[in-house]
């Protein structure tokens, strides 16, 4: 696996509106993938805060990339459960989304996601996910 393969997966497997988020694969390890979500007016709400909908779309996308990395290839999947906690607003900086595969079996995969400020490193959202592997 390499960052170019993971970056290409965003164009190959994701809807155009997800691609419009301009997510960039920053790095990956055996257990996780790190994406950057650029800050911009189209993703911000009043006061310049990154909207929760953009964070959730980025988190879900990051987890799918983490599964691609884990399995070494794309496997069709669907989100079964997604639980998030917003810890504080994110303003005036890009977001870093780190998705980790906690466990992946034959039928289900479980993951955890941390979203933090790219400049200050402070966590702004935590999420847990479950995916059905099809």
Automatic annotation (TrEMBL):
Gene3D superfamilies: Hotdog Thioesterase. Belongs to the thioesterase PaaI family. CDD domains: PaaI_thioesterase. PANTHER family: ACYL-COENZYME A THIOESTERASE 13 (PTHR21660:SF1), THIOESTERASE SUPERFAMILY MEMBER-RELATED (PTHR21660). The keyword Glycosyltransferase does not apply. Keywords: Hydrolase. The keyword RNA-binding does not apply. The lineage of its organism: Bacteria, Pseudomonadati, Pseudomonadota, Betaproteobacteria, Nitrosomonadales. It comes from Sulfuritalea hydrogenivorans sk43H. SUPFAM superfamilies: Thioesterase/thiol ester dehydrase-isomerase. Residues 52-119 form the Thioesterase domain. This is Thioesterase domain-containing protein. It holds the Pfam family 4HBT. InterPro entries: ACOT13, HotDog_dom_sf, Thioestr_dom. It comes from the Bacteria. GO terms for molecular function: fatty acyl-CoA hydrolase activity.
